[in-house]
Amino acid sequence: MPITPLMPVYPRCGVRPVRGEHCHLIDEDGTRYLDFASGIAVNLLGHSHPHLIGAIQRQAATLMHVSNLYGSPQGEALAQRLVDHTFADTVFFTNSGAEAVECAIKTARAYHQHADGDPARHEIITFHNAFHGRTMATISASNQEKMHTGFAPLLPGFRYCPFDDLDAAAALVDERTAGFLVEPIQGEGGIRPASEAFMAGLRRLADKHGLLLILDEVQCGVARTGALYAYEHYGIEPDILATAKGIGGGFPLGACLATERAARGMGFGAHGSTYGGNPLAMAAGMAVLDVVTDPAFLEHVRATGQAIMARLEQFIGNHPDLFDQVRGKGLMIGLRLTMESRPFYQHLRDHHQLLTVAAGDQTLRILPPLVIGDAEVEEFFERLSAGAADFRPPAA
Ligand SMILES: *Cc1c(COP(=O)(O)O)cnc(C)c1O
């Protein structure tokens, strides 16, 4: 393969967006796409949202970056807001999801290597088909071979367990176990929600054995499911949580949230980031939380998600040859096909100007901006129906 100025790690498609308007992307030659991918669950306020733009513009003109050597009124304000709205007592800001998970892993290890802990507990149990990011620690945390190839040796300290299988998780716990790291709703894995029994069971196991429950809510967090964080649906609380993607609304921002107890190993000098929590990122995060913490907004996400899922259920009944199942929560919706999802995803994109995301387990991810209204929902079903009508699966 010839080398290109952009390192060719992504198989990029022919859509080349140059502008965004609310729930649409406009590409170089003027084609308009309905964006039900949202930069993979990132642009939750859609594109060109005035409140987010205003906040970023004002902050950019005031103070963009200072070092974490200085006090941070902006960081304190956003951290306090996250603390007020979640289980957490303390927050570390990052620039991405993988860094948020990385901080969560370090926080869990440091908890057990603390003077009051048991340093033998350094293994984290993770789950099949998980996705936690692309750094060395986060690829090591996933059992997916395709992300490991070429990058040996992996980081030790992870054990892989079947997803949503509580007995298997219980059987893996031993004197080396530090905790569990799990996506409450698997994203890349194919929009697979964990069962309530599984999540409650992991919480019980963690309590019983003195382990930490770490949630990766990088994709399912920040109002995507109709709750600020997905754990709220399960009636449990984690010890540590990684968040990113939607939290900056498109500005690079992530965070590792923790209880005071879980963060006991993270004292002075334990961790750091040059950009992490800079004033510009904090302004973006504040603007997003202004919108998504409004109970009426969360209700809008739940109601719109329910309406779309009910309609999708009906819709797939008319195409049993093509679709198998609808699953998800809020506006994190998976449409499982009877075949690999990629050809249909490409068909919707190239012939019906509808952007979704292909995922594992033959699933199409439907991740619209959370600000969609009736018009976008109608346009989505028009494009999807037309796409299902003229789709010809590639010969097997
Ligand atoms: C996207 C994602 C990540 C990685 O986030 P980056 O910002 O790409 O580093 C981690 N975990 C989950 C569940 C994700 O969906």
Describe this structure in words.
- A hairpin with a 3-residue loop joins strand 16 and strand 17.
- Helices cover 36% and strands 18% of the residues.
- It has 396 residues and is α/β, with parallel strands linked by helices.
- It has twelve helices and 17 strands.
- Helix 11 crosses helix 12.
- The strands form four sheets. A seven-stranded mixed sheet has the order 4-12-11-10-7-5-6, with helices on both faces. It has a four-stranded mixed sheet with strand order 1-2-3-15. Strands 13-14-17-16 form a four-stranded antiparallel sheet, covered by helices on one side.
- The chain is globular, with a radius of gyration of 21 Å.
- The chain has two domains: 128 residues, Aspartate Aminotransferase, domain 1 (Alpha-Beta Complex); 242 residues, Aspartate Aminotransferase, domain 2.
- It binds pyridoxal-5'-phosphate.
- Pyridoxal-5'-phosphate binds next to helix 4.
